[in-house]
Design goal:
globular, binds manganese (II) ion, about 30% helix, alpha+beta, six-stranded antiparallel sheet, about 25% strand, 9 helices, five-stranded antiparallel sheet, Phosphatase 2c, domain 1
Length: about 350
């Protein structure tokens, strides 16, 4: 038996590992929010669900306290959406936030209408075209809508530079492509002739696995955080919750807030490199550090629909970290000696987090 004890050193390591680029997750890592039967893929006929939570930090503006981003979560229909009203309209006295908010509330109405009509099927392409045709506000907006289908695949539509990543076992395995006309001018939905239409949306169909973490955001997130920083924030939230709460799982909302707060921090940092700085350089423009913007983050876990049913709290705790045979109890991580590859990865990960851990064999 090998035991890693949670100590003050552990806390210090977690603190230190907050620095960007100082990755403590080298090599394969276990899924952050693993489930029993981890790795189950779509199309197997087993029912999956999305468990989602969000955080929105509008940029500081007394005249527009709501900012220009908008989003929705339909927990029951496993559907989420984000939109980012294009800021350039402010020059003409138009608040694009009005457009993005209408677009998202019309999207949510469309989800409910579709459900009423079809029983269970939610089609993001239809949501977007429905919502677009009903949105009459002035302005324009990017949009990204994601649903988990009955076939347990992720089905998404994306217009512009909002988007999502899929994190599997601590690594980004997919990132939705950005659509832009030119640097810093994303595809955008709007009613005037110069804007794009829902038919311009990139349609994405992806298989997902139990334990995947989907991070959806506006450019306020993706311009200020590299994928590696998002991955590490997700994994750290998972491990800290596991250690602090006897095997607990952080709420998706809590993880979304941690990501958004780091994006906010980076947005004010004029010294560190950011994705926006890299993009600017590639476009031949000079920009240092982060980009101050509205920041929207939605975090969705892919879970078994019946995951919590029939689980005693004890069993629930055992299943944390997606590695059966690994338990967190009273701040102590216990692992079985005869373990497979993934379990070994979990051990090495924990030993990096807890370098002074006592080990027993
Ligand atoms: Mn933005």
């Amino acid at each position: 038996m090998l035991v890693a004890t949670s100590t003050k050193a552990n806390e210090e390591v977690l603190q230190r590992s907050r620095a960007p680029y100082n990755s403590c997750f080298n090599g394969a890592a276990p899924s952050a929010f693993p489930r029993d039967r981890e790795g189950e893929i779509c199309g197997t006929g087993k029912s999956l669900k999305l468990n989602s939570g969000s955080c929105y930090i509008p940029k500081d503006n007394v005249k527009k306290p709501q900012g220009e981003d908008a989003h929705f979560i339909s927990q029951d229909e496993c559907t989420v959406g984000v939109a980012d009203g294009v800021g350039g309209w402010a020059k003409c006295g138009i608040d694009s936030g009005e457009y993005s908010r209408q677009l998202m509330s019309n999207s949510l109405i469309s989800v409910q209408n579709q459900l009423h009509q079809t029983g269970s099927v939610v089609d993001p392409e239809r949501i977007l075209s429905d919502a677009y045709s009903k949105t009459k506000a002035q302005g324009s907006s990017t949009a990204c809508i994601i649903t988990l289908t009955d076939q347990q695949c992720l089905h998404a539509v994306n217009v512009g530079d909002s988007g999502f990543i899929i994190i599997r076992k601590g690594r980004t395995v997919y990132r939705s492509p950005v659509q832009q006309h030119y640097f810093n001018c994303p595809y955008q939905l709007g009613n005037d002739k110069k804007r794009d239409r829902p038919t311009s949306a990139k349609v994405i169909k992806m298989e997902v696995k139990v334990g995947d973490v989907i991070v959806v955001g506006t450019d306020g997130l993706f311009d200020n955080m590299f994928e590696r920083e998002i991955e590490e924030t997700v994994m750290k939230a998972a491990y800290e919750a596991a250690i602090a709460d006897d095997g607990g799982v952080p709420e998706p909302r809590e993880v979304a807030c941690r990501i958004a707060e780091l994006a906010l921090y980076n947005s004010f940092d004029v010294h560190s490199a950011t994705p926006f700085q890299v993009e600017s350089e590639m476009a031949g423009k000079k920009h240092r550090g982060g980009k101050i913007d509205d920041i929207t983050v939605i975090v969705s876990y892919v879970q078994q629909a019946d995951f919590w049913q029939g689980y005693s709290p004890h069993k629930k705790n055992q299943s944390i970290l997606g590695v059966s045979g690994l338990q967190v109890k009273n701040g102590t991580v216990t692992m079985n000696k005869s373990m497979g590859f993934m379990k070994q990865c979990a051990i090495s990960l924990f030993l990096q987090l807890v370098p002074k851990a006592k080990t027993y064999t």
